[in-house]
Amino acid sequence: MASQPFSRCAISILFLCAAASSLCGQAPAQDEKNQNPLPPWSKAVSSGQTAPAKQSSPEVELQQAISSSGNDRAALVRNLEAFLREYPDSQQRPQIYRALVEASMQLQDNARAAGYAERIVALSPDDISMTILTIQLLEQNGDEAALRRATNYATRVLEFVERSSSAKSPKVSQEEWTAEKNRDRMSVLTMRGRLELKLKDTVAAQKDLAASYAVLPSATAAEQLGEIAELKKDSNGAIQQYARAFALADATNGNASRREIRQKLGNVWRLAHGSDDGLGDYLLRTYDDASQASMAARPRKNADAHEIADFTLRRAPQGPAFPLKDTRGKVLVVNFWATWCGPCHVLEPSFARVAADFQPNPDVFFLAANCDEDESLVAPYLAADKPRTAVVFADGLDRFFTVNSFPTVMVIDRAGKIAYRSDGFEPDTFEANLEAAVRRALALPRASPPAGNPTP
Predict the structure, then answer these.
(1) Lowest mean pLDDT among 250-264, 295-309, 405-419
(2) Are 62 and 20 in contact (CB under 8 A)?
(3) Does residue 25 register a pLDDT over 50?
(4) Distance between alpha carbon 436 and the CA centroid of its chain, in Å?
(5) Between these two residues, 134 and 162, which has the higher pLDDT value?
(6) At a CB cut-off of 8 Å and minimum separation 6, what does 261 contact?
(7) 3-state helix, strand, coil in the chain (%, to 5)
(8) Partner residues linked to 423 by β-bridges
(9) Percent of the chain beyond pLDDT 90?
(10) Mean pLDDT confidence for 304-328
């Protein structure tokens, strides 16, 4: 299942046309100048001839219903509904319902779209993407009965997520599988909590939203928990939740708007404290707490690694595996960096020049290990900066070596011990010092890596 609810199901009317054509056989070639030909019996009437008996084949009539609609979605809805009235048990009902859902959405008739979406779900209860679309359409309708049905469907989706949690594909790592399931569970709990809040069932909504935040902290869940606390006149609770939402909200993407959250937070803070004094410090503390909670909720990559050779990193930005076992017995030079780090940008050309000097030597390997919490920032940075050394995601290597500031450059010798470490960047001496450290590490005799962790 997708990690976030679909905004719209990709249903194609062309699929229905293809299905109808395959049942009807090859249709006669049409005049290219006549894009929307009338059915044969309509032509006979218009020419004054006696209309022949209407063809009784449901497949042919379905093809005529589609063809005579042309590109008019309103006509398509009328024609398909007329077909269903005449042939309510047609084997093509699922495809017809899907075409009616899409055409109704294009006509902004969400009530009709929801009705046909519910019919599809009744026929195919395990069609989760259609179930999610049904929830969204019912929520847009907004009446109590529709919201209650949407809540029931959300419960069904949550049950599906829980059931599917027991089946992991062998092609997916345990970490990726756990992260995906947590995202799914968080999304569905937040969705159901939102519906319950609209139904004014604040007890159930608070329970679901708190569970969602516990699975994976999100700005959306925190904001809605803040609204519930505000309804309950719990100023401190509302301040805490709105501050979490503000800390977690992305400034440009997602459903949670920082501007709106800031307005809600400022209003509650002023009601409680009389002014904005102290709000900035409170937000900074909350940001640190929320960031730590968000990181703790994510699976720790390479958590079981005990030495460098145990690590499997990912190449940036696409993410193919990069196992460090292939560097065993070699000298490894690692530059820990982040996209937001100004000195890291200045250091990169110097690091690349040292790497280029040692490129012919197969016993030394240079890596630039990215440590951004938001990995989506890395691809555009690499596209613009085009570093000349191999770039990987740190994936816990920074945690292993207790890297707390950037840039940090290390030389790991053949035995897996730290032979050189530079926290920070001195432009005048960096290249000479790093080159000398690499040469010293290469000069050491080959030896089997010792058991245990590298010496920090």
Answers:
(1) 250-264
(2) yes
(3) no
(4) 45
(5) 134
(6) 219, 223, 242, 245, 246, 249
(7) 55, 10, 35
(8) 408
(9) 60
(10) 88
Residue 93 is encoded by which pair of tokens?
A: 């009902």
Q: What whole-number distance in Å separates Cα of residue 301 and Cα of residue 299?
A: 6
Give yes or no for a cis peptide into 407 (omega within 30° of 0).
Answer: yes
Grade residue 14 by pLDDT with cuts at 50, 70 and 90: very low
d(CA 190, CA 211): 9
**Local structure of 249: helix, strand or coil:** coil
Which secondary-structure segment (H or E) carries 413? none
In order, the DSSP letters of 6-25 are -SS----HHHHHHHHHHHH-
Question: What digits encode the pLDDT tens for the residues 291-314?
Answer: 766 655 556 788 788 899 999 999
Q: How far apart are CA 308 and CA 324, in angstroms?
A: 7
Task: Quickly name the fold that domain 308-443 has.
Answer: Glutaredoxin (3.40.30)
Closest CA to 409 of 433, 439, 385: 433
Across 115-143, average pLDDT: 93
Contact 291, 373 (CB under 8 A): yes
| Amino acid identity at 86 | E
CA–CA separation, 411 and 417 (whole Å): 8
Question: What residue segments make up the domains of the chain, in order of their start?
Answer: 1-141, 308-443
CA angle 42, 43, 46 (to 5 degrees): 90
Question: CA 344 to CA 40: how far, in whole Å?
Answer: 73
| Whether domain 1-141 has CATH 3.40.50 | no
When mean pLDDT is compared across 25-39, 202-216, 219-233, 271-285, the lowest value belongs to: 25-39
Whose structure tokens read 């019919």?
119
Mean pLDDT of 219-248: 93
